[in-house]
Amino acid sequence: MNHFSDMMYKSRHILMAALLTLLFATPSLQAAPGAPSKTGVVDFARILQQMPEAKKAETTLNTTAEPFKKELQRMNQDLQKSIATYGQAREGMSKQARDLKEKDLNLKAQGMKKYEQEKFGRGGIVQKKEQALITPIRQKLLTAIQAVAQKEGFSLVLDKQAMIYGAADADLTFKVMNQLNIK
Questions:
Q1: Cβ–Cβ < 8 Å for 29, 93
Q2: How many CA atoms lie less than 13 Å away from 180 in the CB half-sphere?
Q3: What is the mean pLDDT of each successive set of 10 residues along the chain, which is 183 residues long?
Q4: By CB count within 10 A, which of 61, 76, 84, 128 is most buried?
């Protein structure tokens, strides 16, 4: 689902920002002065795709959104049918009747847009559900990354997509997946 993919993309950026904030806010993660710092990378997208919780969240989100999608499709079909009917009858209508019908069609279109915004837009039901589902998943992933980074002595962990070059031993993806019991 497109909304879920967007949310996963945003989650990676939020996780990266949270990791950087955590790094700079927690002195124990920072390397001692003069000591070399280790930077690791994690493939957030790969881990999120393989987390059972993320798969379940996507299914739940699709189930939540499906009735709203169907209603939106029904509203759109109704609007298109009304527009077609109006187009055929327009020539035989008085100016006053045409204005009234056009106003009615505009109200239907606005109602459909309002419905779509309430269900799928910013702050809509689907987005709120998405947030509720993804927040604990993000927290679990962040906790696992932090645990692996501390255990392995890494002072900085970035998203693998931001890496241009790096040694293979800097990739913590599989270690984080093991921490989360993902095979």
A1: no
A2: 27
A3: 58 52 48 66 91 94 96 96 92 92 95 96 94 94 94 89 80 90 84
A4: 61
In whole angstroms, give the CA distance from residue 4 to residue 80: 29
CA dihedral angle for residue 151, residue 156, residue 158, residue 162, rounded to 10 degrees: -140
Q: Is 108 left (phi over 0), alpha (psi -120 to 50) or beta?
A: alpha
**CA distance linking residue 37 with residue 45, whole number of Å:** 25
User: Are the C-beta atoms of residues 144 and 181 closer than 8 Å to each other?
Assistant: no
The enclosing domain of 136 has a CATH number of 3.30.910.20
Angle 125-152/52-89 helices, nearest 10 degrees? 150
Residues with Cβ within 8 Å of 57's Cβ and at least 6 positions away in sequence, in order, are 4, 130, 133, 134, 137
Q: In total, how many domains does the chain have?
A: 1
Segment (H or E) for 40: strand 39-42
Q: Give the domain range for residue 92.
A: 2-179
| Maximum alpha-carbon separation in the chain | 86
| Centroid of chain to Cα 59 | 14
| Residues 48, 161 contacting (CB under 8 angstroms) | no
